[in-house]
Design a protein that fits this description.
alpha/beta; 2 domains; 7 strands; globular; binds S-adenosylmethionine
């Protein structure tokens, strides 16, 4: 079975409806993955529409469905969505994009492919990088990290109450033998956790924490959200599928900051009653249907958020 056949896009109809697609508009898929959402966006565009996409993972580009690749309305770059401003300028769409989709986190490919090291129940090297062409693998990071830092990361990005015990145990085991594979790591974590949680492997939170840290997931999301205002056309939409509360927190903080800053050319003496919010929340925290969760259990933690740009561009 090919990667494309195996991948089921999450909240596909809901997210495409949320994009409010104009057939000759310009769109960005900021997390191309295996192109499930991109294919559907292209189906909604006419010959004048345009879809640009990026993904941090080279596999997403190397295993690309040739049908999409030959579509003249489509282009795909390898990169991080925190650089969307730069990419939009290269594509010639800066300031005129009608919608940007973020389907955050890992793809099925990441979890299913042992060699990527994301999954605690598939034996492979603990890598966890979306972009294997740069940065440090989780395995190399674990070799040198100090106990306090490790414990803080597990607490901050995994919200793991046993972060201290787990960190202590990882550091102790690291002194006995090099920790390189996911099976070793998940066993160490499992032993360090005193109480089992129902329906959740004891290594879930720690693996999530290490992955978020290694890929700087929250920092790049924050940057991308802030850059999006100038990339979008007026009324352009940001459609975000999130998978955990830390991502939701970044969106919430972004909205509170943009509400405070308001959309106005800096330094102009405009009375506050004429200032507008930068983004309206069209809808938030929409959950997948129970039917979707039955077919694709990985969608169960998904939440769809829709924001719309309120005002004209400024710089
Ligand atoms: C949930 S999958 C997307 C699946 C896709 N919507 C589909 O239907 O095939 C998330 C994808 O985003 C990519 N990704 C994660 N963080 C990224 C970032 N900062 N910049 C670009 N791509 C990123 C991952 O490599 C992964 O392929």
């Amino acid at each position: 079975m090919s990667q494309l056949q195996r991948h089921i896009p999450v909240m596909l109809n809901e997210s495409i409806d949320a994009m409010n697609i104009v057939s000759n508009g310009s769109y960005i898929d900021a997390t191309f993955g295996f192109g499930g959402h991109s294919e559907q966006i292209l189906r909604n565009l006419d010959k004048d529409g345009k879809l640009n996409a990026i993904d941090k993972d080279r596999d997403a580009i190397n295993l690309l469905n040739p049908e999409i690749f030959t579509d003249e309305r489509f282009s795909l770059k390898h990169g991080c969505f925190s650089d969307l401003g730069k990419f939009s300028k290269e594509w010639g769409v800066y300031g005129s994009v009608n919608g940007i989709l973020f389907d955050l986190g890992v793809s099925s490919h990441h979890l299913d492919e042992p060699a990527r090291g994301f999954s605690f129940n598939k034996k492979g090297m603990v890598d966890m990088r979306f972009d294997q062409t740069s940065g440090i693998s989780a395995c190399d990071w674990i070799k040198d990290v100090d106990e306090q830092t490790l414990s803080n990361i597990i607490w901050k990005f995994g919200e793991e109450r046993y972060s201290r015990r787990i960190a202590k145990s990882i550091i102790y085991q690291r002194e006995q033998t090099t920790i390189t594979d996911t099976e070793q790591l998940s066993k160490i974590i499992d032993k360090a956790v005193p109480r089992n949680e129902k329906h959740k492997h004891n290594a879930t939170r720690t693996f999530q924490a290490i992955r978020i840290f290694i890929n700087k997931e929250l920092e790049v999301l924050k940057d991308a959200l802030h850059n999006s205002y100038n990339i979008l056309a007026p009324k352009g939409r940001l459609v975000l599928i999130t998978y955990h509360s830390l991502e939701d927190r970044v969106i919430k903080d972004f909205l509170s900051v943009t509400d405070e800053n308001l959309s106005t050319p800096r330094g102009l003496p405009i009375k506050s009653e004429f200032l507008k919010k930068m983004f309206n929340v069209v809808a938030k925290s929409i959950k997948p249907s129970s039917d979707e969760i039955k077919i694709n259990p990985r969608s169960r933690s998904a939440k769809l958020n829709i924001l719309e740009k309120v005002n004209e561009d400024y710089d």
